[in-house]
Amino acid sequence: MGLTGSEEEIQTATKAYRVYYSIGPSENPNDYLVDHTIIMYLVDPKGDFREYYGQNRTAEEISHSIANHMLRYQRN
What family does the Swiss-Prot or TrEMBL record give for this protein (predicted)? Predict the structure, then answer.
């Protein structure tokens, strides 16, 4: 899920998640470039943090981790 909001809300979220973004130059007014942190966060249905995944994890490792978290959540 991607999130957006006002500039103030975005700044609050970037601080809370300890991530960054930087809007880059663009020659086309209908397009834009954004450099940003490449971390994914897993939160449970209650909104509680469970895990984060960086570029050092494979798709298989991530999907296995998510499946395990889902099983644990369903048991509780």
Answer: Belongs to the SCO1/2 family.
Cβ neighbours, 10 Å, residue 10: 13
Q: Is 36 annotated as a binding residue?
A: yes
Is the pLDDT reported for residue 1 higher than 80? no
Query: Residue 69 pLDDT > 90, yes or no?
Result: yes
Q: In the predicted model, is pLDDT for residue 34 greater than 90?
A: no
**Same-domain pairing of 53 and 25:** no
Beta strand extents in 1-76 (DSSP E only) = 21-24, 33-36, 40-43, 49-53
Residues 19 and 47 in one domain: no
| Same-domain status, 31 and 51 | no
